[in-house]
Every structure is written in C-alpha cells, then in structure tokens.
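For the sake of transparency, this paper describes our internal protein records without simplification. The tokens are whole numbers drawn from a learned vocabulary of local backbone shapes. One such record is reproduced below, unchanged from the form in which we store it.

. . .
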Amino acid sequence: MHIWAAGFVIAAALASPAYADWRLTSTDAPVGVVRGANVTSAAAGDTLRDGDLLESREGVAHLQDEHGTLVALGPRTRAMLMADTHVALLSGWLKIAAAVCASARCAQVRVDMEPGALDIGASAAAIIAGPDDTQTVNVFSETGTQTFAAKPPTPIPTGRFASIGSPGHVQISARPTDAFVTGMPVAFRDALQPLAVARPAHIAPPSHAATYDDIAPWLDSKLPARKSFPARFRSRLTDRAFRHDVQAHLNTLPDWRVLLYPPERPGVRKVRYP
C-alpha cells in the first residue's frame, strides 16, 4: 500500500506543470546569481533554480523553462525566480511570454512587482519596466491580455500601456509613452522565441558568501518574497560586518529585529552572579 501511494505521488509530481527548471539559454555577459546565501554567476546553458536572485549586467539575458515560458532580462535588471512559473521583478526591464497552454492544469504565469502582481495571459507576452528611481511600474501588453491582480482585477488588453503606482493605482493608455519606447532595450522589439540550449561549462564559477550590499535592494523591497529573506540569510548574521549593517538599517528591516534581539522565553529566569 505504501509503495502504491509513493508511486502515485511521484507520478503526480512528474505530471504536474507547476514546477519547472529554468535554463539560461543566451546572455551577452555572465549573470550574477544569489543562490541560497552565496553569490555566484551563471552563463549560457546553466540551470537556474527557484529562489535564485538574478542580476543582469550588460546586454540582454534569455531564460526559458521546461514548459516553454520565455523571459528576457534587460541590462542592469534584478529579478527572482520562484516556483509555479512565477518571477519577481525588482528593477530594470523584463519581457515575458507565456507558453501555449492546451490544458486547464497549466500553471498561471505571474510577475510579482512592488505595486502588486501581474498575471500573464495564456500565450500572451508583456514588457515590464521597473525603474530604480520611482515606485511606478510600466507595462506594455504586447500580445494577449494581462491582468493586474488588484481588487477588482484590472485587465490590460493587447496593445495597451499601463502605469501602475503604489498602492496599486492603474492608469491605462492607448500607447506606450515616448520615454518607455526610448528606454526599452532594442532586443525587446522582437517577439521572444525559444532558443537552443547551449552546453553549460564544466568549470564551477567562483562564489562567496553574500554581503549586505549584495542583497540590500532585495531586503529593502516591498515584494512578497521579502518575508522569506530573514530565514534565508539568517546564517549571515554570524558575519560581524553583515550583522552590523542589518542593525544599522533596522528601521527599514523590521522583520530582522527578532533575529537580532530574540524575545525572552517565558518561565526562564536570568541568573545574576555576584
């Protein structure tokens, strides 16, 4: 009975479209990766994992998952890969295209942004810009209909442009602004296409433990994933410099206070020695 149950669970997991490996199919320069609590880099052909914090440098990087979801990162873009075909955009330029879905069980492609979440329509594509110097995120619906997951949900039809501010205010326009078109990476003008996956290099890239500066933009973000970072990077508090930097920014990092100053356990008395 136990063997049958285990086999059923394994088969269901293999059949589920929710979890998918990402591959870095093409990149003009190595992509910085924070994996776990360490900083490394990835090159074309490398496999990426849920939880990877990506930072593109120069040029454009292309990713795709095993179900056909396509993503392009513009230069100087920070994004995070998550389970269930979800991506978080912290800053920079991201273009995403959902795969053709022939089943009702296909996972919903979603992009988390600081103002809220954007659901990508089936077989749809969108271009998203999240500038560093503003809380407004701009979205161009290239094909299909995207939906900003507000209350009520706000659809962004094909060809429409949306400026999404905090707290979730959406302004729909008939065409993108001149500033959006001018700043958009040139490669984003073409439709995303599946690319052949290059063979990864067998030489492991150098890595080091994440410093505060490596992850500070993520720790201070308004993304839902921020809640997972204290547990994820807790081990780095043993580093004196990292701990000092967190202490210095507790006014913007309230989730870390309990790790630095854990509450006293009830019933435990402090013993004073003469």
